[in-house]
Amino acid sequence: DTGVSQNPRHKITKRGQNVTFRCDPISEHNRLYWYRQTLGQGPEFLTYFQNEAQLEKSRLLSDRFSAERPKGSFSTLEIQRTEQGDSAMYLCASRASPEPGVYEQYFGPGTRLTVT
Amino acid sequence: AQSVTQLGSHVSVSEGALVLLRCNYSSSVPPYLFWYVQYPNQGLQLLLKYTSAATLVKGINGFEAEFKKSETSFHLTKPSAHMSDAAEYFCAVSPHTGGFKTIFGAGTRLFVKA
Q1: Which of A82, A4, A97 is CA-nearest to residue B96?
Q2: Are A103 and B100 an interchain contact pair (Cβ–Cβ within 8 Å)?
Q3: Omega of the bond prior to A8 within 30 degrees of 0, cis?
Q4: Which of A26, A54, B72, B95 has its CA 20 to 30 Å from the CA of residue A68?
């Protein structure tokens, strides 16, 4: 098991285009989280899944954002009609649940999005 | 609502000096508390965690943190800084319920001078 992976690592797109990111969590982890991190800030929670169910979405997740985890394994985050304000690092994390004593999340390397 | 405040967006220390990164949290009940480290263009790596066991928590790379409920603090320390410690450090809280989503502070960038 090599940890949480994210693809692509970098994405440059023009304003108005759609982009999709993929996250592959640690295989036995049933909880998956998406965060957004802008320059000089800590990660901000976007949404999380338990298995294939999306259980919580942040107000930051506008109508242009959609996340899926169709089979409870990998997840995708799509941004439609990208705006320059969407430029950020998008981080994915996973966690096993329930697992006594383990409350931390394991993070992937992130996808850096630049909207020009 | 829970929140995290990290005092000082930048901290600079000399190699071999004490590292002290400050974190205060706001929560109606003691949450789970974490320190993560982030190196450039990488994801976050867990340094240590507090989950209501011992108040002094030891982590990786010689770091430790002490949970002080009366001060709502969880400051990170290391007795002797190494050049490889230069990175961004994030304090974070996670509630006991609600999916364990993590709320992060704004981060403190640690610079280590030779």
Answers
A1: A97
A2: yes
A3: yes
A4: B95
Is residue A42 within 8 angstroms of chain B, CB to CB? Answer: yes
Mark out the alpha helices in B4-84 (DSSP H runs).
none
Gap between the Cα atoms of B84 and B75, Å rounded: 20
Tens of pLDDT, residue by residue over A58-93, are: 988 889 999 999 988 999 999 999 999 999 999 999
DSSP A61: S
Distance CA B37, CA A8 (A): 22
Q: Taking a C-beta distance cutoff of 8 angstroms, is the pair B103, B92 a contact?
A: yes
The 8-class DSSP code of residue B20 comes to E
CB atoms B99 and A110 under 8 Å: no
Please indicate if any CB of chain B lies within 8 Å of the CB of A114.
no
Tokens 């294939």 locate to A52
Spatial contact of A68 and A51, defined as CB atoms under 8 Å apart: no
- Contact criterion met (CB < 8 Å) for B100 and A105: yes
- B19, B37 contact by CB (below 8 A): no
pLDDT tens-digit map of A3-23:
999 999 999 999 999 999 999
